[in-house]
Write a structure and sequence with these properties.
By secondary structure, this protein is an alpha+beta fold. The chain is 53% helix and 21% strand. It has a 5-stranded antiparallel sheet. Helix 1 crosses helix 2. The longest helix is centred in the N-terminal third of the chain and has 39 residues.
């Protein structure tokens, strides 16, 4: 193999890698947009799903809209899985896309229920405090 042949081969490989990375990024954005649409289809009081390019920010409000807190982020991992905190979906493929979105919605629902259940004991404890006269 000559240097010219090796350079041509390496340049072709580099071009393909760049194209594949761009395709993966576009697929990831498309899947995240579809997930954001699903999460925002049924608005939940005090929960917000904010699409921000390559991620979806999950925010929760307590005591009014001015106290919105970022509590998690959906993103696409390098291995083409949707990731939220330490949980992830199966690989995103043309065949699995609907399942991936369903799985992500379920993970989000589980997270919301877990978060709300952690908050309920604190609310209950505050309700038990004696009232000032």
């Amino acid at each position: 193999m000559t240097l010219a042949e090796a350079l041509a081969s390496e340049r072709e490989r580099s071009r393909k890698d760049t194209e594949e990375a761009a395709t993966r990024q576009e697929v990831g954005r498309t899947v995240l947009q579809a997930l954001a649409q699903r999460l925002n289809a049924d608005p939940l009081p005090s929960w917000f799903f904010i699409s921000k390019g390559d991620e979806i920010l999950v925010a929760h409000t307590r005591n009014g809209a001015t106290s919105r807190q970022h509590v998690g982020t959906w993103s696409v991992a390098d291995d083409m899985r949707l990731v939220f905190d330490e949980e992830s979906t199966e690989w995103i493929t043309a065949e699995s896309c609907a399942r991936v979105l369903d799985e992500a919605v379920k993970i989000t629902a589980r997270f919301i229920v877990d978060t709300e259940s952690r908050m309920l004991p604190a609310v209950h404890e505050f309700a038990q405090l004696p009232q000032r006269a």
